[in-house]
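Problem: given the chain below (110 residues), write out its structure.
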Amino acid sequence: MDADVGEGWLILTLTNSPFYVGLTAALSSVGVLLFSLYAGVIADRTDKRRVIILMQVAFMLEAFTVSILVWTGVIAVWQVLVLATILASPARSTFPCGSRSSWRWSARTT
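Solution.
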């Protein structure tokens, strides 16, 4: 995900510490560990398009939040770590929704 690169770069700029870059990546991967068992169930039982749209809105809100915090100069390491953990957890669990639906949507456009 592109957000992982941006979060890592921001943490490196704030701390200049490879440890915090690794911690950010690890916290972003917590969602795979916690929600991967349930992701297939979610993909089978919910409206995939609605889940994907909801997650894109969540990504947008996180991007706006981080950009406002950076722009105002009040960004802190803990804020980036919390946002990376909170948003990455459900985002990683919606991968089955996207992978199951993308072939259907692309087939309609051709």
